Amino acid sequence: MNQINLLLNVLDSTYDKESWYAPFKHAIEGITAEQANWKPAGEATKSIWENVNHLIYYKERLATNMEGREWAHNLDGDDTFHFITPSNEDEEWKKVVVRAENAQHRLREVLSNTSVEKLEQNSLEEKLLDIFLHDAYHTGQIMQIRKMQKSWPSNR
């Protein structure tokens, strides 16, 4: 397996190809806007919606940079959790889910068209691996929130 295909495989594993842990797409599957906004009482925990915002932001930013374009929405780390304003409307949540899927597909396409030489420039391979680990970390948080709210499927 070449370097690009290996990175694509890891990207897919964090998003929708189940391996030894549940991927992001499965972690947000079937939840409502209310569930996406839920936070445990008294806890300093981010909501599922906030975590998804955060992941979209960094994935879109990386894809834009890989395309050689400048990212115009510079936010600090905390502000990325509020990148898209949460709503209690299921239709708004569905738009966020679609945006997360589009961000994934775009990054995948950009990576598919990247040369091995480009991977070695500006620590691009490291940045990609950081995004993959970052996605897996926040996916685990999303699953934990779902377990706390009892919306995680019992067969997982």
Give the helices and strands, then pairings.
Blueprint: H1 3-15, H2 24-28, H3 33-37, H4 48-66, H5 90-112, H6 116-119, H7 124-148
What do you see in this structure?
- It is built from seven helices and no strands.
- The chain has helices at 3-15, 24-28, 33-37, 48-66, 90-112, 116-119, 124-148.
- Helix 1 packs parallel to helix 7 and helix 4 (48-66) packs parallel to helix 5 (90-112).
- The model has no long low-confidence stretch (mean pLDDT 92).
Structural class: mainly alpha
Envelope shape:
globular
Report the end-to-end length measured between terminal Cα atoms: 30 Å
Rounded average pLDDT: 92
Sheet with the most strands?
Answer: none
Ranges where pLDDT stays below 50 over 5 or more residues in a row are: none
Query: How many beta-strand runs?
Result: 0
Helix coverage percent: 55-70%
Tally the helices: what do you get?
7
CA-atom Rg in angstroms: 16 Å
Order of helices and strands: HHHHHHH
Proportion of β residues? under 5%
